[in-house]
Design goal:
The chain has 551 residues and is an alpha/beta fold. Helix content is 44%, strand content 11%. Helix 2 packs antiparallel against helix 3. The radius of gyration is 23 Å and the shape is globular. The termini are far apart. 51% of the residues are buried.
Length: 551
Amino acid sequence: MDAQMFCYQCQEAAGGKGCTIKGVCGKDAPTAGAMDLLMATVRGISIITVSLRQAGIAIPDDTHIAHFIHDALFCTITNANFDIQSINARTEKAVEIREALKEIAKEHGIELPHTTDLDWKGTRAQYPTLAKFVGVTRESNEDVRSLKELTVYGLKGLAAYAVHAQHLGYEDVDINNFVQEALHDVALNEKDVNGLIALVLKTGEYGVKVMALLDKANTETYGNPEITEVNIGVKNNPGILISGHDLKDMEELLEQTEGTGVDVYTHSEMLPANYYPKFKKYKHFVGNYGNAWWKQREEFETFNGPILFTTNCIVPPKSDAGYKDKVFTTGAAGFPGFKYVPTDANGKKDFSEIIALAKTCQAPVAIEEGTILGGFAHNQVLALADQVVEAVKSGAIKKFVVMGGCDGRVKGRSYYTDFAAQLPQDTVILTAGCAKYRYNKLNLGNINGIPRVLDAGQCNDSYSLAVIALKLKEVFELDDINKLPIVFNIAWYEQKAVIVLLALLSLGVKNIHLGPTLPAFLSPNVVNVLVENFGIGGINTVEEDIKAWIG
């Protein structure tokens, strides 16, 4: 393909086909190429680690290598890292790991295949040329490419959740090894189409495992989320706005800001931090400011204080943005010109520079007032199980509608606001992820005291929605989860939504409706497979969909 780049991993892929000049997200062609080369090298590492394990050979620093691979996958997620220098530094580290592993394989007489992923060599100056041979379009068969990329994008989401769990001291060697096995299989073309479909579903199985692991890490560390009214107004102190998904970063920021006169506010996907009991002890943690990630350009201006990105969801600021010198990144996130907060040898981060800057800033300007309700993760909802079951048996609740996933910028996403507003009064919305910002401030009321919008938390907390559904299946003594009165209307944007989708498919959930558009990386034949075997479909008008799905 004669193009400066090719990327179609997110919902905003240009023309519904792919970005070839510059990413709609703001990623330029050189950075896209740098990511392709990093991914190739990580595939090369995985070829060797799998070969060594199959031969029964111990891998030195096995855990460190797994963590490195997860970070490499995470930093290539949409809107996570735009900093080509940090991407190239990771590639250099990946080459170092790859070459050391090749020496181990050589010492033990293991013959490795000859692939570009294993054999490429070059300097940073040569990276752009080398990257052209290892990107998405290296695979000429459209259907094989589609299934491979579906797996890889699932792995990127899976890796992101694994990283968050690792930060809290939780990991699973089986998950680590599976990521490398899947990358090995994608790299070596050893599976036919049926084998690749099986790999997609297996990726979903491990998606369930990693979300369960992260749920355990979060709840054992910070307590089970509980029903919480979150303040969306402001106070008079200067503040720090924290965005992203990493609760360990949230904890460290709260610890370091305590007693400083600086308040902490969440933004976008960090909103559910407000639901955890351990965070509620911090009096200077005052609530949530703003809405979904894509509104940050306007909301960061009025916040006045510094912003910390712990993960993805960065929107490149305009050249005249007043806040761009106040933005910090950490972990897998990065952007040229934003200051980066590293992790020290003890696994800690020093946020003192952010705190010092906050003290020089004005307090945030209020953009709304009041509260929003959340905290309905599986433990909390199951505590209300009797109340919910009674409402279903009495007919007060006729349907549950799962509306999890991502929000985004395209105008068509107003569909989700209208859909929620027009649902019959006997329906309850189960949500997780930033898709909720399309309707979580609507006054949709309650059913016998049960709020009609039950927010479980972040995108990874879609696991809670699965737990709730499986519990209802058990309570109603059903043999199939698809016999429950549940409709799945999922909005997607990036790769963490992909692993959620694959996780649901692996659990046997069918008839999932995906919007606002189907992924560009799904070829027509792969779409047909998903439709025929799993009932995957798109969306139509609000009126048509409510009539068809709800009745």
